[in-house]
Amino acid sequence: MTALRRLLLALPAAAALAACASKSNLVVVLPEADGHVGAVVVRDEKGERVLDQAYAAAGSGAGAGALKPVEVAPEEVTEIFAPALSAQPMPPRSFTLYFISDSDRLTEDSRAAFGEVFAEVAKRKAAEVVVTGHTDRSAEPGYNDRLSLKRAKAVRKLFVARGLPPDSVIAAGRGEREPLVASADGKREAKNRRVEITVR
Amino acid sequence: MRGLILIRSALVSLFLIAALSDRATAQAAIGQVKTASGEVTVLRGGASQKVVPGDHVFASDVFETGADGSVGITFADNSMMSLGPDSKLSLDKFVFDTTTHEGVFDSSLSNGTLAVKSGQIVKQTPEAMKVRTPGALLGVRGTEFVVRADGGSR
Fold it and tell me: Where are the alpha helices (DSSP H) in B26-129?
């Protein structure tokens, strides 16, 4: 009886210890700010497991053993990962500016909106800017690749003119690959004639 | 006269070779350090140096943090990684095409804690981003997750 009692008493402590040991190696999928949850595929010597729920986790003890499903509470994630999570950079912020058809000149509204974009740049430490040009589908894809890059470079110039170091502004063209709104080939669409600016 | 021309053209080609190889070896940055506190170092080309915000990050860099260290990095595809204390992360491979968004991002966490937000590489090609840990290979389908590694070597 005493032996059994001792065993029963020892059980929770042993379980807690085992739980801890099985989290020396740990992977936890987190919900995004908008509530969306992504997925991570864990592959090891025992096979493959997809973690695709908020706080879905796999863990193992120290060393290179296979990972097993483990329960992890949000508070536990905060506790274990607080320093890493608080070292995360500010999330990138995106802006869109629009162009006059078949040109690298901004529309009047977009020229005015540029000030707001620059304010975001000024706010950040070690700011970088990525300017990605896009076109509508009124010309050939090859031409649109070139036009989209021309648009991106024109906006890049505006940042450099305001004093941002040239190597902190990247210009890229995406042609007609990523329309903001769907449109038929050969058709003009003002909403797709744009640059997307990411400040990070 | 002919000798002079020969020497001159030899010099010109030497200069060209130097210029070309310089361009070939001048590696493009793959990211930038945005936050750093406490002891943070990077191992690059065999030399270890201190890390401060604003530093450029290159493929093959190995970041290490001390007992009080943490560091946050943004990459060319907008993905983000940050390390907690006593951590070691190798950026094994990073390739990103800004036009097609195709790419590869392989890293290894051998010790410590890592927080990840995947970016455009994963959005374009799920699992093109991989994080290796002592016991597993993680294929990233997006977007936010955390990893702790303990290889048991200490």
Answer: 120-124
Sequence-distant (6+) residues with CB within 8 A of A28 are A51, A55, A56, A57, A72, A77, B145, B146
**Which of A50, A170, A200 to substitute to test the interface with B, most B CBs within 10 Å?**
A200
B79 and B105 Cβ atoms separated by less than 8 Å: yes
- Residue B106 in tokens: 């392989």
Contact, A92 vs A127, CB < 8 A? no
Alpha carbon of A5: minimum distance to chain B alpha carbons (Å): 34
Pairing of strands A57-60, B80-83: unpaired
Q: With beta carbons less than 8 A apart as the criterion, state whether A106 and A153 touch.
A: no
- Residue in chain B closest to A39 (alpha carbons) equals B141
Whether residues B145 and A40 touch (CB distance < 8 A) is answered with yes
Decide if the complex's ipTM is over 0.85: no
pLDDT tens digit string along B135-145? 899 999 989 99
Pairing relationship of beta strands A39-44 and B137-142 according to DSSP bridges: antiparallel
User: Hey, is the C-beta of A142 within 8 angstroms of any chain B C-beta?
Assistant: no
**Closest-CA distance of chain A to residue B113, Å:** 6
Cβ separation B141–A25 shorter than 8 A:
no
Task: Compute how many other C-beta atoms are within 10 angstroms of the C-beta atom of residue B154.
Answer: 7
- Ramachandran angles phi, psi of A92, nearest 5°: -60, 150
Helix and strand counts by DSSP (H, E) for chain B? 2, 12
∠ Cα A45 A62 A9 (to 5°): 115
Query: How far apart (Å, rounded) are the C-alpha atoms in residues A194 and A146?
Result: 14
Instruction: Specify whether the CB–CB gap between A183 and A189 falls below 8 A.
Output: yes
DSSP state of A106: B
Encode pLDDT of B26-75 as tens digits: 578 999 999 999 999 999 999 999 999 999 999 999 999 999 999 999 99
Nearest alpha-carbon partner for B37 in A147, A111, A125: A125
Spatial separation of the C-alpha atoms in residues B36 and B31, rounded to whole Å = 14
Whether A77 contacts A28, CB under 8 Å: yes
